[in-house]
């Protein structure tokens, strides 16, 4: 037996259809097995709140052993996990192929699947993650009302939301529009540059629920840059990738979404057309989680190999045939936050590589958690912790004295922007946290 593994982490399929997966005794036995290894290692003590909670539970016992910790107390450890995957991919020496077979995030996921099987998920927690239903209704009928109700300045409604729905009264919530990006983008598509080196290439631009309903400006910039580089974009949005459902252990629904999406995208998959996303969490779902949930599905595997973050794809295009010339200088520094789900793809800092194509950009990379964690960070019991994690990242950002701050994750960007505002720093006054594709579009002179 080796002390640690020098091999690359290998994720094993999730055995979620096996009845043993939600067997309470077998789950508890597996949690104790993996927690014993974590207790003896403690390398992840500073990654998130889950590990300090676990170690405190153990250290508070007289003999400082896991055996004295009640199984009921494990829930606090699980509830603190955001499924960011950083322990698995950056810290743990005992992940597969090591024989200890430690996969802390998927162990937390298994516990949540168990909770769901016992109907322990709160009603409003279930409603928050209905991104497609909520987005369709709000964008079609009540975007203005919704934005008024959810505004942080509307003290009365936000206090009611905290009381009834469990959403913290101070968290900045996404705005909605009276249209969807999917519908609007097809009305006036950007003109494709026939003189670009990459002219003739074609992609599927997978809109994602967040771009479709909440941040269409990111999608606008992405389509402009792609078209300017001669690349035809087929804008599609069949449905959400299922990341919000995965966070709450609804693997069955994630599998259904994966089945339906690969069916809808099959005409593109048959032609080996790349699938592009501008939200790393969605890219990670299609690249990594779907194949682990449906390991026997050949179409899911094919989609996985064809899926790219937009910055990753443009870097590849630049290496292949080159991006179109005429990128204007942008005076930096640019502080780029690498999101956890971007790092979890094991592709390197592609957002930084893309931004460094801009003259004078002076990109500074920040590899720290934003603390948001999707729907986790908006809850009243988590928001203060989320902002606490963000403070360390913001302090790191401010040491670079950036002219622009960026994150490839729109949710992390919104969270960091609020943290910067709360800390009353110079960068909060000058700009919000942008997506890197928006800066590249600006450098091309494509923004209005």
Could you characterize what this model shows?
With 448 residues, the protein is α/β, with parallel strands linked by helices. The protein has 4 domains: 19-117; 123-165, no CATH class; 181-319, Rossmann fold (3-Layer(aba) Sandwich); 327-443, Rossmann fold, CATH 3.40.50. Helix content is 50%, strand content 6%. The chain is built from 24 helices and 7 strands. The protein has helices at residues 24-41, 50-59, 74-79, 86-91, 104-117, 123-128, 131-141, 143-150, 155-165, 181-185, 209-213, 216-228, 243-247, 251-264, 266-269, 280-293, 298-306, 310-320, 340-343, 350-355, 383-398, 410-422, 426-430, 436-443, and strands at residues 202-206, 232-236, 275-277, 307-309, 334-337, 363-366, 404-407. The strands form 2 sheets. Strands 2-1-3-4 form a 4-stranded parallel beta sheet, sandwiched between helices. Strands 6-5-7 form a 3-stranded parallel beta sheet. The longest helix has 18 residues, at 24-41. The N and C termini lie far apart (60 Å). The relative contact order is 0.10. The model has no long low-confidence stretch (mean pLDDT 92).
How would you summarize the topology of this molecule?
Blueprint: H1 24-41, H2 50-59, H3 74-79, H4 86-91, H5 104-117, H6 123-128, H7 131-141, H8 143-150, H9 155-165, H10 181-185, E1 202-206, H11 209-213, H12 216-228, E2 232-236, H13 243-247, H14 251-264, H15 266-269, E3 275-277, H16 280-293, H17 298-306, E4 307-309, H18 310-320, E5 334-337, H19 340-343, H20 350-355, E6 363-366, H21 383-398, E7 404-407, H22 410-422, H23 426-430, H24 436-443
Parallel strand pairs: 1-2, 1-3, 3-4, 5-6, 5-7
Helix pairs in contact: 1-5, 12-24, 16-17, 21-22
């Amino acid at each position: 037996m080796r002390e640690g593994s020098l091999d690359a982490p290998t994720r094993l399929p999730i055995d979620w259809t096996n009845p043993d997966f939600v067997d309470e005794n077998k789950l508890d036995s597996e949690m104790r097995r993996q927690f014993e290894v974590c207790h003896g290692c403690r390398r992840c003590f500073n990654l998130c709140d889950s590990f300090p909670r676990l170690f405190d539970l153990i250290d508070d016992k007289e003999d400082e052993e896991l055996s004295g910790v009640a199984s009921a107390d494990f829930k606090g450890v699980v509830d603190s996990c955001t499924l960011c995957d950083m322990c698995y991919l950056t810290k743990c020496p005992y992940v597969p192929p090591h024989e200890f077979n430690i996969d802390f995030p998927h162990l937390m996921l298994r516990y949540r699947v168990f909770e769901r099987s016992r109907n322990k998920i709160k009603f409003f927690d279930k409603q928050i993650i209905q991104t497609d239903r909520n987005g369709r209704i709000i964008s079609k009928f009540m975007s203005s009302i919704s934005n008024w109700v959810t505004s942080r300045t509307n003290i009365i409604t936000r206090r009611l939301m905290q009381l009834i729905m469990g959403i913290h009264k101070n968290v900045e919530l996404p705005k909605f529009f009276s249209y969807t990006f999917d519908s609007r983008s097809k009305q006036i598509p950007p003109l494709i540059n026939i003189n670009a080196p990459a002219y003739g290439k074609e992609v599927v631009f997978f809109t994602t629920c967040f771009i479709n309903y909440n941040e269409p400006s990111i999608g606008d910039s992405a389509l402009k840059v792609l078209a300017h580089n001669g690349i035809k974009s087929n804008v599609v949005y069949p449905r959400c990738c299922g990341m919000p459902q995965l966070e709450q252990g609804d693997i069955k629904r994630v599998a259904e979404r994966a089945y339906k999406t690969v069916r809808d995208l099959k005409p593109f998959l048959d032609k080996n057309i790349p699938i592009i996303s501008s939200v790393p969490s969605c890219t990670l779902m299609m690249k990594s989680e779907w194949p682990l949930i449906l390991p026997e599905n050949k179409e899911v595997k094919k989609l996985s190999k064809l899926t790219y973050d937009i910055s990753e794809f443009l870097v590849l295009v630049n290496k292949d045939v080159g991006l179109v010339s005429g990128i204007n200088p942008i005076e930096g520094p640019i502080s780029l936050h690498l999101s956890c789900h971007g790092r979890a793809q094991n592709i390197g800092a592609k957002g930084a590589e893309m931004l460094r194509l801009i003259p004078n950009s002076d990109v500074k990379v920040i590899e720290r958690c934003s603390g948001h964690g999707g729907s986790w960070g908006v809850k009243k019991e988590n928001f203060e912790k989320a902002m606490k994690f963000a403070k360390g990242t913001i302090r790191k950002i401010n040491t670079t004295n950036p002219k622009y701050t960026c994150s490839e994750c729109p949710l992390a960007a919104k969270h960091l922007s609020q943290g910067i505002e709360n800390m009353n720093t110079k960068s909060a006054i000058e700009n919000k946290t942008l997506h890197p594709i928006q800066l590249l579009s600006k450098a091309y002179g494509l923004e209005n």
